[in-house]
């Protein structure tokens, strides 16, 4: 049956004039709320809702526009080919082999339906390490490796899709692993998360 209803936002003033309240980008759609869009990020402005965690590497994941500082590794622009767009990368200079850095998503609600995680990655360099995609079950505290990419993949961006299904809350982690030398910068761009299998 159809019901007519009204949604109201009530704003209550504080003690003085320094209590302005603002709203923006209100959306209304059929069905239950879906937080899948919270993982989408092109990194052109910031890290969106992703968090960079240092791990054992000297540097954490960080945003970059244009080329990475070291020659013979890293992209020259973002995944669209733009030198003005941004991406995130793991700088591997002044570090040691097998050191790690983590890019961690916000928590994702459990669902009986599968979701597709897609992203672009760039792994160019003769001493390239590995990029691992991991999900963490927040209830069982269990880590599951979904995908691993190892070694020099050439000076191009590659597209990757991974299907995720979890009945518990979880987080997605991109783990960068440094190779044997500084020519092992790893970059990620244009993460998207949508309903359905890949």
From TrEMBL:
Recorded source organism is: Exaiptasia diaphana
Q: Where is the composition biased (Low complexity)?
A: 66-85
Concerning CDD domains, the annotation shows:
MAM (cd06263)
What protein name is recorded for this chain? MAM domain-containing protein
The GO cellular component terms are: membrane
Which residue intervals define the domain MAM in the entry? 1-35, 39-198
**Where are the residues of the annotated region Disordered?**
61-85
Query: Which SMART domains does the entry link to?
Result: MAM
